[in-house]
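Below: protein 1.
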Amino acid sequence: MTAKKILLSLGITVLLYSNSNAQTNDFTNIDLTSLNAFSTPGPNWTIASNADADINKEGYMKALPGTGAIVNIVSAKNKSHLITKEEFGDVELELDFMMAKHSNSGIYLQGRYEVQLFDSWQKLRPTYVDCAGIYQRWDDNRAGEKGYEGIAPFTNVAKAPGLWQHIKIKFRAPRFDDTGMKIENARFEEIYLNGVLVQQQAEVTGPTRSSAFADEKPTGPVMIQGDHGNVAFRNIRYRKLQLTDNAVPTNIEKRRDLPTPIIVNAGARPYLLRSFLNYKNKMLTHGISVANPNQVNYSYDMKTGGLFQVWRGQFADATDLWYERGEPYQRIIPLGSVIVLSDAPAIAVLNDFQNTAWPDSVAFDDMHNKGYTLDENRSPTFRYELNNIAVTDKVSVPDASGITRTITVAVPAPNLYCRVISAKQIGRVGKEMFVINDKSYYINISEKFKPVIRQAGGLQELLIPVTSADPVTYSITW
């Protein structure tokens, strides 16, 4: 039995896999400089360069001038679906989407079988109505409940409203004999939401609710639901699905055959786990990862004071940690949708604000780790001295929206700064909110901390001056 099948038998379904005989990148992109790829699009659909949605304002979405995206703004009169002119059988379809707050949409393969799109942010136990669920079928003549056969995603890794998300759908069309009789049902081979496997071998016995067609055929168009809420799409592409049985793990680097995988999640309280951790192209040896009951998790490097990754969803595969010793096996693998941050130190002295580069590492003799303490909620506060500067660094998860970090320096040195993030793009979306890297996640900082953005090495850095012993606080929301 493969590692993947073992995990499925245990209900563990969030490791990422790919085909060992990987097909070439022969995707076809749907042109979004116009709506010509779609049949009779209604006025609720607009070509745009991007979209804005407000995390706090229900239903709000705005189309930004330009091309490359499509935006649906629903009204009482204008709420048509968007249907491709081209028809598809077996297909691999992927795209980016953005939800308005509390919005609802869906992608119908062959215009018949719906993958739900929904603002499911922060929901711990998803059902078929949540993002990446297979929507239920419906029969008004059915005794008892009219709806049936909906399939919930394995886990919820949906992002907050106003952020771009990614979905990949591998769909196998129904099969028919020479007389036109159906001999096999349609099936979603795999669905990935934000990089995480959330559906596998999900069979549908017929068209789901509100489909464009009541019958079933070998091919059909893709339909995007346009009557339930405001939503945006971009980077829509497809290719013919290649069906094989040669799937192998890619994120565990051709690991040996091992006993039953060890999957770790938080119980009723946060769970802390020391281990090696992969970070970009290196192995971190002083990592600690924290799982939370609401499935908001993070990893911290006690060697640098860097909060270097956060993720939503299942916590970790700890098989390598427990069954093997030494590098590279003494590690864990995050199982959710990971956002990579920075392993660099959180504080540094910038004597020349414009020209002093932020240090990307810490010399061995400059860092003196003092361990960590836990508060009543088991949130850790890390303590260390960096270049003789005493620091306490508390990372907490007050709710399911994200992570809050509070850094306190007992005696700040002159020209001391806290670096919140280094990114390709940092934009403001409110008085105290920033959006990072093409709307991938948010950072919230009170104006009282006087955050500044500087250009550095082709990137942007969001910095907070540390001028007193008062705590500096910010949060990461996604």
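Below: protein 2.
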Amino acid sequence: MDYETIIGLEVHAQLLTGSKMFCSCNANYTEAEPNSHVCPVCLGMPGVLPVINQKAVEYAMLSALALNCTVSEYTKFDRKNYNYPDLMKGYQISQYDFPIGKHGWLTIDINGNRKQVNITRVHLEEDVAKLHHEHHYSRVDVNRAGLPLMEIVSEPEISSPEEARDYLMKLHSILRYLGVSTCNMEDGSFRCDANISIRPIGCKELMAKVEVKNMNSFKAVYQALEYESRRQRKAVKEGEPIFQETRGWLDEKGETVSQRSKECADDYRYFPEPDLPPLIIDKTWIAKIKEKLPELPEARKNRFVAQYGLLLHDASVLTGSLKMADYFEECVKLAGKERAKAATTWILGDLSRLLNASGTGIGDTKVRPEHIADIIKLTGKNTISGPAAKTIIEETFHTGKSVDDIINDKDLRQVNDISEIQDLIKQAINDNPKAISDYRAGKEQALMFITGQVVKATSGRANPVAVKEILIEELGGK
């Protein structure tokens, strides 16, 4: 029997607010001393009263609108009750039946096939404390407790690990464009839990739902879902039961392990938060937030194709990151719209190679847009050759020197006056009689070889087009 995979994703994104969700404690906890950004509210002391962070609400509204959701005019907060060591109060202030955003969607693209994944809800809650596990005990750092956390829940409509990865990458990109979260998966500001089930093809009933946690990269999400999909199919084939449970992903072992039985909504005993009144979001407020929506990745990608004539794939890569897209447009602004494709070649080619090899982000590179623009202009004028341009971009990457300084320091200006290298051309002809014979026999590649020898002798400074023309003339034409 053939089975299909059904996946639903729950994404948590920490919001970039100055203070926590329900108190005025500093939300920048990553570099703070443990338990230094705390107060009676986030410590869960008796008798304290929470106050809603307006900026967090507006960020959630902005995200909901970007994800094509309807923003609820009536929403409220609820208590989600459970007992974990990282939750001092014994409950989490979250949202249950009246989230801020609902009924949205996000489009993914797998191998040219577009698919709409519906989004159930976008809601706000508070983050929990962070546990640091030692050999025989655990320590609790409450600095993270109470941070504004936005949860985005998809419908169970994702059919493969590939689709799940693309969905997460698109969502990650959108939230960064909005500026509502750093979305750093490494430090937990963008976290994903995946619910995965299988069912016989053609059957509507799902088998037991398994939740997978502890995935801190797109690669880990893909690998965990691949493993879990295989594990469930193998269990069914061998007649073993699949339990509704929560499993953790062990990256070093490449497998999921059982952690606990999976809770359902009834286990949390939701009830309205008694210390917070319902939150009314009127249409005027929604309209003001809607005006703040920036150009989102999908729209920017389509504009790059239409405005600059880029290939769809190149436009997708450039707009996948807000900083990369801004970098590209600054290059085009300096170099000229007609050189957009040249800018794309340098950014996605040599620059990306250097960035990836060094683990550097586009926002941290010493190669500024003006460097790329200068390289494009100078190669276009035949002032420098292609190989010289590659040397320049690498030198700039490591030193930050200007293009002109590197050209002067390394004597990279291209030789276009053939009289300067006439002797080298004649020498190349004399030193390569077989290549000359092959060329006269009709082998065009032989001419390219001799041209390369001349260019090599000038350390790449000779203009290969001009060298080739002189060689043809010297050899009596084609």
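Residues 3-290 form one domain.
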